[in-house]
Specification:
heterodimer; A: 34 helices; about 20% strand; elongated; B: about 40% helix
């Protein structure tokens, strides 16, 4: 057997094995391998009401599920679809209309294009244009979902949303069968519930949910390893098994045991990978991650066991799967079968693992067609078998969804099917040729004498052990040279001695004749009831409480009650238990060991038991048979037989058969005696004869008796048959009546149909209108699109929520806005043209129905005029705004240019005006030094005319009066090197004007090839300057002389002062000293009067000395240069006070000198000032008993003010004005001695320091002198 | 009578008299030699001119020097004395009626040992001379 590998690119062999073998042709298609990881694909089918459902689904979908979504929507084939655009706005998932050959990407949404048929092949989306083809109805959803199931297996997800009809149901079914996951929208939430309802009714939908729940579930499933893991590779045999942890193996074994116990099907030899995947799938649906968890769940939930059982049995099937094979069947196999078929008997055909019957019906159709074509009279009978009673039931009804139109040609549909609602029913003629029966291929004995076995895509689900067992069975079952067809990837393996290959491609084999049959080795039925462990002790589906052990118990009690020997049997006549000695009635049959009661029954009992059991089954009551003749080891026995049914509501009936031997005593049966009596009444013949007769009679008697029993048995069978017939009759009647009901229902439906038709017509009209409207709309849309596309002005259209609705293509470049920005709020965008306060502008525009305009500049400096207009609907409702960005660079440019021109004009006028009014002569020359123009000042100054000047060479002007060497130098040497020349002085003798000094200022204007030459006549100015210079020097001379004079006089003054100091003092000293000497020498001889004269002169002379000293001091204070330094006034005052105290030690004066009074000033002068002030205070307090003198500092108007305060005599403030004048005295000389110069000196010192001095006084209350010193 | 003399340099007759009287009154113990101007004073000190032959080394104990004098003023004399290695050790007291700080400063700069102002009051003058006496008499 060759190993076939299913492509990882999608062909997924869900490999569920089941005895219900199904066909699966995927294996043949995708044998190439690709390494690409498979993206799980979600197929979403929707029809009417689909947009709403899709919108809601996408809204709730996480953007990063990693799933690819393919949307199949029923679309109008004649219109472009906007579905992709509509869906693209919903969330971030990129949505695109699918194109041929696209590989689905994760997190992308693909939408089927209109009028096309989409499939998934080799991992790529394939799109074909839909043809007006043979299919009665277009089923794009089924079409796609089936291809999806086929290629993606467990990575396929199907979702059926709102819609009418049944499209999608077959697809969903197939997805489920391939191990994928199926969803349907909860029909009550769907706008149209037809499609989801139909999908749900297939029983294949895993989840029936609302849209948000579907979205949520999708997100969850997307993360589950079952969906994410790539489909495993399935091969026919020797498949590499991934090592499973021992614990997992244990769990699987447990699951198998449970299944075997519950449903009597052993999955041990089914493909493990398949089984595991199916179990994993169940776990996914139950949200379980651990196998152990699932096993415990199974133990507690028998229903889950049932669900698992159904999942395990693959039901992938369809009509005419692999049509070529059926063609081949028709063209090759059937003719050969008929060729060999000579008898009248019907042909016998076996379709094992028929599932829901499609395959068997397909075979039947082929035969019928062929027989009709060849006008053959042959008949055939098809045995279709499966292990699953549920699917068989479906097959028996022969009802199929209308979607089968995809697989069945219209001709066949018309001929072999009857349409009922949304379904097709197989015709009775075919149905009658098929017999459906439960049969386990793996263990039940086969049919025999078959002409054809069609067993396709079954073996692939079995492991090699089972495969090797089954092929010989097929061999055994077939007639010589009969045919066997297998699935495309299946072979007979090593049994080439049994079968010959007829058609390799379609896997058709014929039985080799003459080969010795290997002994058919049916698998003995494994004891299923005896197991004692809790896991599998007879759990039966649906009857979790029922325990077979109970039967045993009950049986035992019954047997005890009746005491006689007996056996417990089941429906199949298998003996489950023996009771008592049954050896007289039962004996092991020769050959294979069997517990079948019929096989073990001794001669004579067989018919009786059979009849009795049948009767008991029918009557559900005890059945008695008496005087049954049994041959036991050659001896006749009479036995009473009782069959007791055991009433348990279990699916299989059980019976107890009791045997009771009738004693052989005279109490022989009545009939025997009467018969004997008759014989005795006959005339006697020979005694020999008599003896012979006796013997014969006895024999006859026995035979008759046996005959009677047989008759009786026959009778019971006939009765049985009658009962069955009656039953059938009544059933028939029921059918008839229901038929009538159906008829009336049909009539009602007919009426409804008519109503529907009229509604339909109305709808058509409406539809037409809508289409017209659509046409207009699309035209309008086109107009709008064209307008937008060709608008060269960036325009943005906003909704009333200020989200971007639309914009012109040019806006994309100019404003940096992207199509993905549609739907975003404008304020979230960073436009390349920033508009300040855009938001408020828009709002005011929308609220006030006003037009707004702004001029703004973008980042590159371009100018835009922003126009904002309200967006108005036909009803004049404002539902947003439009923004136009009009580039006004050109307008701005023109404006600027105009402005510049005007400015230029103005400047020019201004310049001309300046030139005209300029009083300096001005020449404008060209580069060849010809005059272009000159100003009036020039003509006036140099007495020349305009005509004689313009266009003349500058050197030729005024008869060459400008032909000056310096000018040559200026214009030809200096100017070319410099841009401008300032104040180039030229002295020249002009014929008319005389000698003139000129200042020439020249400027080169290169870009205009002009030279400006301004001529300034500075002759007069120079003269004036000369004169000023002269005056200046004279003035300076005078000043110097005066200064010298002053210096001299100053020196004289100094000398004078010095002389005064010296020369005046000397004579005064002589006067004083000699007067004193005179006074001393005269002493007592001097009379008081002359003495006083002498005293007067001494005092006056001394006075004069003092005056002179003070004058000198004042003069010195005035002249002295101030040297600023830090002066500690406090300590200065202290030292002065010491001197005063020393001079008059008797006086008690309270000096209060504030410490730390420092300032800046000339120390020597300040000492003099302070000395004067303190001395005054000292002096004017001399008459006060308690004298107090303060020296301190206060703040006055931001400055430090020092003060000297005394409590002396004080003075009248009316005289304060004179106080600081020279020689001013407020007191009598007699009272207080003084020169009258002290305060003047103080004031001078303070003033020289930039300070102020003032006084506050009151007569009798002392005086306070304040002074400030300007710092710095 | 002390051996060493005191040289009084004074041009004013009245002042010379007053000074001599005052010395007398305070019982001055030194001989007082009077020079009428600066030159004469130098002659005396140098042993030149009028005093030719006088021993220059016989220096006076003190020179009382007026500042304002004809022919040569006191500053010049002071300068010469202090420049002369022999005379430089002589105690020089400026005795002047000037109260100018300028004069005092100059005198001190030139090496004057004392600066005495001629008091107008005679009693004060006596006190000044008493002070001088005490300076010259080693205790």
């Amino acid at each position: 057997m060759s190993t076939k590998i299913l492509g990882a690119d999608g062909a997924k062999e869900t490999a569920d094995a089941s005895a219900v073998g199904k066909r699966d042709d995927s294996a043949s298609e995708s044998s190439h391998l690709t390494c690409k990881t498979i993206v799980p694909v979600v197929g979403i089918g929707s029809s009417a009401g689909g947009l709403e459902a899709l919108t809601k689904l996408l809204q709730n979908l996480a953007p990063d599920t990693g799933l690819a979504f393919v949307i199949i929507q029923h679309l109008d084939p004649t219109h472009e679809s906007l579905l992709a655009d509509l869906l693209a706005r919903i969330n971030k998932l990129p949505v695109q209309q699918a194109t041929d050959g696209v590989r689905p990407e994760p997190n992308h949404v693909y939408v089927v294009p209109p009028n096309s048929c989409m499939t998934l092949e080799g991992g790529l989306l394939r799109i074909e244009t839909r043809q007006e083809n043979s299919r009665i109805s277009h089923m794009p959803i089924d079409h796609f979902l089936r291809s999806l199931a086929h290629h993606h297996g467990n990575q396929a997800v199907g979702i059926i949303l709102s819609g009418t009809g049944t499209d999608g149901s077959l697809g969903i079914k197939e997805i489920k069968e391939k191990g994928g996951i199926a969803f349907a929208q909860e029909p009550t939430t769907a706008k149209f519930s037809g499609m989801p309802q139909s999908a749900i009714s297939t029983g294949s939908v895993d989840f029936v949910l609302t849209l948000p729940a579907i979205a949520q579930e999708l997100t969850r499933i997307a993360r589950h390893p079952y969906v994410v893991s790539p489909p495993s590779i399935v091969s026919m045999e020797d498949e590499p098994q991934p090592p499973h942890p021992q614990t997992d193996e244990t769990y699987y074994t447990q699951i198998f045991k449970m299944l075997r116990a519950a449903v009597d099907t052993d999955f041990t030899h089914y493909k493990h990978s398949t089984i595991r995947r199916r179990i994993t799938r169940r776990m996914t649906l139950l949200k379980m991650d651990h196998l152990g968890e699932y096993v415990s769940y199974l133990k507690e939930n028998p229903n889950e066991l049932k669900a698992l059982y159904h999942d395990l049995l693959i039901k992938v099937t369809s009509f005419f799967r692999d049509p070529e094979t059926f063609e081949e069947l028709k063209s090759t196999v059937i003719p050969r079968i008929l060729e060999n078929h000579t008898s009248e008997k019907p042909l016998r055909i076996w379709v094992p693992a028929c599932a829901t019957g499609e395959e068997s019906y397909s075979v039947a159709i082929c035969f019928l067609e062929y027989l009709k074509e060849t006008k053959s009279a042959a008949t055939f009978h098809i045995f279709a078998t499966d292990v699953d009673e549920v699917t068989l039931q479906q097959a028996r009804t022969g009802h199929y969804l209308e979607n089968i139109a995809l697989d069945v040609s219209p001709e066949r549909l018309a001929r072999f099917f009857t349409r009922v609602d949304h379904q097709y029913r197989i015709n009775k003629s075919i149905r009658g040729m098929c017999t459906f029966a439960k049969h386990n291929l793996a263990k039940d004995p086969p049919f025999s004498n078959l002409d054809l076995i069609s067993c396709r895509n079954v073996l692939i689900y079995f492991d090699p052990v089972l495969q090797k067992r089954i092929i010989p069975i097929f061999h055994y079952a077939l007639k010589p040279s009969a045919f066997l067809t297998l699935g495309p990837s299946e072979t007979i393996g090593s049994f080439s001695n049994l079968f010959a290959l007829v058609d390799k491609k379609h896997k058709i084999y014929s039985k080799k004749p003459g080969v010795a049959q290997p002994p058919v080795d049916f698998i003995p039925r494994e004891p299923k009831t005896i197991e004692t462990n809790g896991l599998s002790s007879g759990i039966l589906l649906g009857q979790p409480d029922w325990k077979e052990a109970d039967v045993h118990k009950k049986a035992a009690s019954v047997l005890l009650k009746f005491a006689p020997a007996g056996v417990l049997i089941n429906e199949q006549m298998e003996i489950l238990q023996f009771h008592g000695d049954t050896s007289h009635y039962l004996i092991p049959a020769p050959g294979k060991a069997s517990h079948n009661v019929l096989k073990m029954a001794r001669p004579g009992l067989l018919g009786e038991i059979k009849a009795a059991v049948a009767q008991a089954t029918l009557l559900k009551a005890q059945v008695h048979r008496e005087n049954v003749h049994v041959r036991c080891d050659g001896k006749p026995l009479r036995v009473n037989l009782k069959v007791v049914p055991i009433e348990y509501s279990c699916p299989n009936h059980h019976f107890i058969i009791l045997f009771e031997e009738v004693p052989t005593a005279p109490s022989s049966p009545f009939r025997l005696f009467s018969f004997l009596g008759k014989l005795a009444g006959l005339p006697r013949l020979k005694s020999q004869m008599a003896t012979e007769n006796e013997k014969l009679k006895a024999e006859i008697k026995e035979l008759r008796q046996e005959l009677d029993a047989t008759k009786e048995y026959l009778q019971s069978i006939i009765e049985n048959q009658d009962a069955t017939n009656e039953e059938l009759k009544s059933v028939n009647e029921e059918i008839l009546s229901s038929n009538e009901e159906l008829q009336s229902t049909n009539e009602e439906l007919e009426t409804a149909k008519e109503e529907l038709q009229s509604t339909n017509e109305e709808l058509s009209t409406v539809n037409e209108e809508v289409q017209n409207r659509n046409l207009e709309l699309s035209q309008l849309n086109n107009d709008l699109n064209n307008l937008f596309r060709s608008a060269t002005i960036p325009i943005i259209m906003l909704g009333s929520d200020l989200r971007v609705r639309r914009f012109t293509p040019i806006a994309q470049q100019v404003l940096n806005i992207l199509p993905t920005d549609i739907g975003l709020p404008l304020e979230h965008l960073r436009l390349h043209i920033p508009v300040p306060d855009l938001q408020p502008l828009l709002l005011s525009c929308i609220e006030n129905d006003s037009f707004e305009e702004r001029e703004v500049q973008d980042l590159k400096g371009h100018w835009y005029s922003i126009h904002i207009r309200p967006y108005k609907t036909d009803e004049h409702k404002i539902e947003g705004a439009l923004i136009f960005f009009i580039n006004i660079d050109s307008i701005k440019g023109v404006e600027k240019l105009t402005r510049t021109l005007e400015e230029l004009k103005q400047a020019r006028t201004y310049n001309e005006w300046v030139v005209e009014t300029l009083r300096e002569p001005l020449l404008i020359l060209d580069t060849k030094l010809h005059v272009i123009s000159a100003n009036p000042a020039f003509y006036e100054k140099f007495h020349v005319s305009r005509d004689a000047t313009e266009h003349q060479a500058v050197y030729n002007l005024g008869n060459g009066q400008w032909n000056i060497p310096e000018l040559h130098r200026l214009l030809e040497e200096l100017l070319p090197k410099n841009k401008e020349i300032h104040n180039f002085e030229v002295d020249h003798h002009f014929p008319v004007l005389g000698r003139r000094s000129m200042l020439l200022n020249a400027r080169r204007l290169d870009h205009q090839n002009l030279i400006f030459l301004a001529i300034e006549d500075i002759t007069e100015r120079k003269a004036a300057e000369q004169q000023i210079l002269h005056f200046n020097s004279e003035l300076e001379e005078k000043v110097a002389r005066r200064t010298q004079e002053l210096t001299v006089s100053n020196q004289e003054l100094e000398t004078f002062c010095y002389s005064v100091a010296h020369d005046l003092r000397t004579p005064l000293r002589s006067i004083v000293s000699f007067s004193q000497l005179l006074e001393m020498s005269l002493n007592d001889g001097l009379a008081p009067e002359p003495r006083s004269y002498l005293q007067h002169s001494i005092t006056s002379a001394k006075q004069m000395t003092k005056l002179i000293d003070h004058l000198l001091e004042l003069s010195r204070v005035t002249r002295k240069e101030i040297r600023r330094e830090k002066v500690d006034l406090s300590s200065t005052a202290e030292s002065l006070v010491t001197v005063f105290r020393h001079s008059q030690p008797d006086r008690q004066v309270d000096f209060r000198i504030a410490p730390g009074l420092t300032t800046e000033g000339d120390g020597e002068l300040l000492r003099i000032a302070l000395h004067n002030l303190l001395e005054n205070a000292w002096k004017f307090t001399s008459k006060v008993s308690k004298a107090t003198i303060d020296f301190g500092r206060v703040r006055r108007e931001g400055n430090d003010a020092f003060f000297v305060r005394d409590n002396g005599v004080g003075f009248n403030m009316a005289h304060a004005g004179k106080l600081f004048g020279l020689f001013q005295r407020l007191h009598e000389e007699k009272e207080f001695a003084g020169s009258g110069m002290g305060l003047a000196t103080v004031q001078r010192i303070i003033q020289r320091h930039g300070g102020q001095i003032w006084v506050d006084a009151e007569v009798g209350h002392g005086a306070t002198f304040y002074f400030t010193l300007k710092k710095d | 009578m002390n051996e060493k003399s005191v040289l009084l340099v004074e041009d004013n007759e009245a002042d010379v008299n007053l000074t001599l009287i005052a010395f007398e009154q305070v019982n001055f113990s030194h001989e007082v030699v009077v020079a009428r101007d600066g030159l004469e004073a130098l002659d005396y000190l140098m042993g030149t001119g009028k005093y030719l032959g006088r021993d220059k080394n016989d220096t006076p104990a003190l020179v009382l020097l007026d500042l304002k004098m004809p022919r040569m003023d006191g500053f010049e004399v002071l300068k010469r004395i202090k420049e002369d290695p022999v005379l430089a050790n002589i105690l020089v007291a400026v005795l002047t009626s000037s109260s100018e700080a300028k004069d005092r400063t100059n005198a001190m700069k030139l090496g004057a040992d004392l600066y005495l102002q001629k008091a107008v009051d005679f009693h004060e003058f006596l006190n000044t001379l008493r002070y001088v006496e005490t300076l010259l008499c080693p205790v």
